[in-house]
Design goal:
mainly alpha; Serine Threonine Protein Phosphatase 5, Tetratricopeptide repeat; about 85% helix; rod-shaped
Amino acid sequence: MIKLEKIVCLNRIDYLHISAILSFFILLGSSLSAQTAHKSLRFGDNAYEKGDFSGAEINYRRALEKENAAKSKYNLGNAVYKQGRYEEAIPQFEAAASSSLDPEMRANAFHNLGNAYFEKQEYDKSVEAYKNSLRIAPDDMDTKKNLSRAMRRMQQQQQQQQQQQQQDQNKEENEENQEQQEQQNQQDQQQPQDQEQDQQQQQQDQQGEEQDEQKEKEAQPQERDMNKEEAKKLLQVMDEEERKVQEKMRKMKGKKTTTGKDW
């Protein structure tokens, strides 16, 4: 048991020594990393002041790799903004505004965020960013001026959008009216054609009926006028028939009628 306790003690001593050494190197590494981040940040600031915004961006990104500091994010946003890449600058300003403990930096980050949105013509978001900046620094005249300009642009944009919507609506209504008018014109043009076709059909039907009647007449036997000889013979036949009838009636009158009684 004694031997085991020594071993444990020795191991504990070794572990403490190792932990202390590791902590020292970690602190040393952090210090060196912070120094490197500050160095890159300083190089970035020098490049920014000279107008070398691309070089400033490279150094600010290096500083962020070493230390995730709000100042590096804010400066990176400025360098990217100066290059006209407003979409990329926005998240950097938002990160700086949300992570910085310095009120002045937060106000500036919101201010520049409003500028980035203004350049993108997203005036409603620009107005909100300027308001957030003024909540922190209410006396900042530059932010007030920018807010006033952004609000005017937002109103103009809203009016333009309303006008565009009205124009689109009018255009749609005009297209519908034009379509209805074209349909009505087609119907008006079609109606005389239909009437003409109906008249033509009626004429064709009437002509067909007349042709049918003519065919029926042609199919019937034709009567012809009798000549004088035929008329004379017909009268003789009729006279003969009349004579026979008269003679028959005289014979019937000449017969005596008898009754059944003997007086």
